[in-house]
Amino acid sequence: MLRLDLSNLDPRRVGAQGLDFAEALREEKERLEAARDALWGRRGDAAEFLGWIDVPEDTEAVRNVLRYRQANAWVEDFVVLGIGGSALGAQAVSAALGKGPVRLHFVDNVEPEPILELLRALDPRKTLVNVISKSGSTAETMAAFLAFRRWLEDALGAGWKEHVAVTTDPARGILRPYAQAEGLAAFEVPPAVGGRFSVTCPVGTLPLAFVGVDLEAFLAGCRKANETAQAGAEANLPAQTALVHDRLSRKGLNVNVFMPYSTRLRYLPDWFVQLHDESLGKAVNRAGEEVRTGTTAVRAIGTTDQHAQVQLFREGPHDKLITLVRLEEATEDLEIPAVAGLEALDYLFGRSFFELLSAEAKATAHALAKAQQPNFAFVLERLDAYTLGWLMQHLMWQTAFLGELWGIDAFNQPGVELGKEYTYALMGRKGYEPLAEELKAEGVE
Ligand SMILES: O=P(O)(O)OC[C@H]1O[C@H](O)[C@H](O)[C@@H](O)[C@@H]1O
């Protein structure tokens, strides 16, 4: 169960920075429902990249992943070679719900020392390497694959092939034909699913299967979010949180803090940052006019960052909307013991850690509101696969709704290409000589 707590948006609490949500919903009902209809209407068209809506319905893809997991019971370490959308979803969910005993590792950078450290720690005979790249061309992921493939072959000879699984586009890119030629296990990223929307396909489900995440429940939660995204504006939760973002960004609240009160959810903000920033930070709208949309998502974890960022959130510029994620129940709780001689702490004696966590979440939300800092909360009944699936698919919908409201394409990322081209030029890739010359003339070599 997931619900919204919008009470700290109320202008009676937060003043002019706030939002009369009921009134806004009445005013924007038509616009929100038009956005909903446009999104659902376009979803059959692969070029629109709305395939993520339907992926949670695809139970065959999950069964395939689970069969592979069962057939590979020997795996003790599972290494994901992937970056951005090809890593962040599985990282967020595994940190929250992974049970082991398989250890999951993510190589999402090309700094040599951590890669060497991992290679030295792993036993190749017990390691499965999952190279994940939709495009099959991401330099970081491919460099890591070249290194891990060599490492496996050096240790296992021809047996390296049993230790690699490839997750990529069914047709495009270099990885698919390579996997076929070498006879490697291969999984699909559906063509109509972009990286940051791919956690429900094998990009996410394969690593998550190995750490025992209940995938059926996770996808059922995603389907629940789909159901709410079909409703009229009064019950359409993603349209509602998109409305909050839209209205408050128009008031100049252009920083979006995403702050779960949970260490288990510590990587969820990283996943959200990519989803939100890459989707919504756009120079032009669908008509090609310059618009420069976007708000900046910022990571924070409660309670930890109460002691690092909340000072700024309360007293810094009024440019923020804060999204909290609160849990209603602990999965397991721990009593805080009484200790003689420390009676100054007696307000803690006999209370539980979860009670303290909940009190801090509510106290901080209220303290923010007192400083006229609007905030709202996703309230999760508990942290389980169903609820986390619901929340993540909700956030994908929220992003899609915002793209629609702002008239932009939320599913491309043209702004990241130039840096890649420059990298190719600096690395001496064939065909990039003129660009390398241009860079040299500009003082970059
Ligand atoms: O899965 P890949 O094709 O390797 O892409 C990995 C990531 O890199 C790109 O630069 C994009 O900006 C991201 O949206 C994507 O998730």
Textual characterization of the structure:
It contains 16 helices and 10 strands. With 445 residues, it is of the alpha/beta class. It has a 5-stranded mixed beta sheet with strand order 1-10-9-7-8, sandwiched between helices. The chain has a 5-stranded parallel beta sheet with strand order 3-2-4-5-6, sandwiched between helices. The longest helix is centred in the first third of the chain and has 22 residues, at 21-42. The site of 6-O-phosphono-alpha-D-glucopyranose (G6P) has 14 residues, from loops.
User: What is the structural class?
Assistant: alpha/beta
Number of helical stretches of at least 4 residues: 16
Q: In total, how many beta strands?
A: 10
- CA(first)-CA(last) distance: 54 Å
| Main sheet summary | 5 strands, mixed
Using the coordinates above, name the CATH class of the largest domain.
Alpha Beta
How are helices and strands ordered from N to C? Answer: EHHHEHEHEHEHEHHHEHEHEHEHHH
Q: If you average the pLDDT, what whole number results?
A: 97
The rough form would be described as: globular
| Uncertain residue segments | none
List the defining traits of the structure above.
SIS_dom_sf, 5-stranded parallel beta sheet, monosaccharide binding, isomerase, 16 helices, carbohydrate derivative binding, 2 domains, Rossmann fold, 5-stranded mixed beta sheet, 445 residues, alpha/beta, cytoplasm, binds 6-O-phosphono-alpha-D-glucopyranose
Please provide a brief summary of the model:
The protein is α/β, with parallel strands linked by helices.
